[in-house]
Amino acid sequence: MTEPDDNIKAAAGVLNYGPFRLTPPLIEAALSGYSDAPMRRLAKRFGCPMALCEVFLDRFVMEVTKRSKARFYLAVKPEDHPCGAQLMGSEPEEFRAAALRLLQCGFDLIDLNFACPVKKVLGRARGGSLMADPRRALEIVQTVREALPDSVPLSVKLRKGFDETPGSEEDFFTLLDGLLSRGVAGITLHGRTVQQGYQGKSDWDFIRNVKRYLIEDKKRPDFFVIGSGDLFTADDCVKRYRETSVDGLALARGVIGNPWLFPQAAAALAGEPIPPSPDLEEQKEVILRHWSESEALYGAKRTTMMMRKFLIRYAALHPKGEEVKRAFVSFRGREGMENVLQRFYK
């Protein structure tokens, strides 16, 4: 890969996320159905300075805290800090109540999701639908910001727009300017539109232009932009960081079943040799660690259901990936999982 130049080496040290100084300038994105406590803690062990929990519906937060299942979703341990919680909804007051409840649970910051492209979410005026309604989005932001203590960062997850129309781009910058004036710490920006979902490529030119807009207009020098989309290798991370001058990078699908991307990206950004891909023994050890962490939280029966989707992603690193994937699809219980490891990860 092309080595980062000296400016990149100097710049790639710290992401100032409100009061939190994150080194390397990486976060684990909020991944619906994936970034639960075991995955976030594994990311921390691999050098990720901060991980966001999977997105929570505001009403879900208020309901789950009344039940024993809260320990699955909202338990925060000392080693988790700093940790962020991402919220999604449509009503300002429900956002407000849920944000305050998450602070009580121990989360350090709140991130608002105005980016989710799932049709069911859009149909209920949540997530990415707010990219097309900046007035309502800013009403939510102001309500939450006024409710939070000044010391708690509020950030927002955005996409480049609702669609590719000029009006959508205008809505984006109306929303962005509103965030700047309402005390938001920064944004994570995904370079696809809401209508694109995950089709096509992430538009990093747009992300670069947003960062340039903020720099040239001298708008809030403390306001960060974290880039997101199609970051699957250390090369991807260095390339996008260099080209866009973003303050940090959000690793998402690329780290599901591949926590090794965190130290690889960190080394590349620092201009250091990239650690090699893990051998089969190391892959096996990490899979077992992930399973044990999940089992300690969910119990044996639930863990099989929770871990299967991760194991399928771990299989992608194996030389016989498709064969291992099929084995992980059909196993039962911990014994079955260990039989797969014994067979393929010698």
Explained architecture:
The protein is an alpha/beta fold and 346 residues long. The chain has 2 domains: 6-269, Alpha-Beta Barrel (TIM Barrel); 280-344. Helix content is 47%, strand content 13%. The protein has 15 helices and 11 strands. It has helices at 6-11, 37-45, 58-64, 70-73, 92-105, 119-122, 134-147, 166-180, 204-216, 234-244, 261-269, 280-298, 300-314, 321-330, 333-344; strands spanning 15-17, 20-22, 26-28, 51-52, 56-57, 83-88, 109-113, 154-159, 186-190, 224-228, 248-251. The strands form 2 sheets. Strands 3, 4, 5, 6, 7, 8, 9, 10 and 11 form a 9-stranded parallel sheet that branches. It has a two-stranded antiparallel ribbon with strand order 1-2. A hairpin with a 2-residue loop joins β1 and β2. α5 runs parallel beside α7 (134-147), α7 packs parallel to α8 and α10 packs across α11 (261-269). It starts with 5 loop residues before the first helix and ends with a helix. 45% of the residues are buried. The model is unreliable at 1-11 (pLDDT under 50).
